[in-house]
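Support reply, case 0932

Customer input (verbatim):
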Amino acid sequence: MTFQWIDLIVVAGYFAIIFFIGFVISSRKKRGASSASEEYILAGRGVTLPFFVATLVATWYGNIFGIGEFVYSGGIVAWICFGFPYYISAFLFAFLLAKKIRESDVKTIPEQITLRYGEKAGYISSLIVLLITVPAAYILMLGVIVQLFTGWALWICVVFGAIVSLIYLYSGGFRADVLTNTAQFVIMYIGFGALLVFSILKFGTPSMLADKLPAKHLTLFGGYSWQVIATWFIISLQTFVDPSFHQRCAAAKTPRTAKNGILVSIAFWVLFDMLTLITGLYSRAEFSSISPMDAYTVLGENVLPVFWKGIFVVSLMATVMSTLDSYAFISAITIGNDILSKLRLKIFTGEDATKALTRIGLVVTAIICVILALSLPSALQLIYKTSSIAIPGLLIPLTLSFFKKYYLTKKGAIIIMLVSSGLSLIWTTGRFLTDNSMIIGKLFWEVEPMLAGISISFVLAVLLVRKATENG
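Our regenerated output:
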């Protein structure tokens, strides 16, 4: 994309606003806050409805280029796969778990697993959570966006992105995350709203797109088989093990805030999905020979005037950074609060121990992210593969941990986590070691790792889950 000086001022203004919120506003600690650890990790469990909605919505869309790619390549089916199933999962989460999470005393998923299944299970869950929260893919995406307007080498952009995204979390903790997410939430809608408006002004109303799009782009399944669609519905179950959902519910001011916040968030997700869907279809209709990953940037380059182009690039940055910040902080908590603290180090003691260990975790997370981002062949594949390994192991043990009628023993929970995630890992690795001309290779390639892991998880659950009235 090409930029004028005013666009660069807009970008600079964005960073100034985020830094001011992250360093200054977030440092204004509210009176009556909880313990130091709860203040740093959960913002004192005082997140009100508007901030809950803003931070949860903003955290959802870090894979914005993947969304554009899917819409450009498949059409409406992108919403059927990336949108609709997640609304259902979020709706179920709101009614089944949101209040229970807020009513519990735990701060993280590994703490919940430890409480119900013991320290060994908690440690295993920490490693699984870490697998899906280290945000290397988002660091890479942010580096690519920074490269758009700077022209710097990618490694410089990745390092720069890591520093500017994480530095205010070091001092401000979760409160800084929530407040910066809120600003990023507003910017996301402004940027994509502008992209839609200027697309309509240049190319006509969305009703005129039908004649310019491939027929399959306007069908619900987009040429995909029902098995593929079903797989995406299963993938949406990651909502139940998503650490960002659990953290925000735990940080909500009341259990009612947690439940209602998710329900309101669904409405905002629908709105933003419509913005990304329609603009992606405009890009496919008007620019049919570009790389699908460039769907939004090419459209923005061609329809947006000066200043608004800067606003749009900032909205892309805000979309990625909001997810990056949230997952980096969860990764830091997992390393500090759920792993390092279990080693019983004597370096840090007292109320500030959790804060100090989480800060160490944040530095470690940043280093890991930069290393992985610079060596990744595909950011999208990393997100998909890690989720495929983590979700099968956590879904059933974590969900059951909040209910009393049915339960798992400590041994049963460990078996499900190790076997389910282990099978998905073997399945993922098997794809690299075999090809589909071999019998075993066909199995690895024709069945998704996620489906293999989820299937064995449910089979084990049938065998191992017990009713509370039973002995043992």
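We compared this against your earlier run and they match. Two observations from our side: The longest strand covers residues 406-407. The chain is about 75% helix and 0% strand. Please reopen the case if you see a mismatch on your end.
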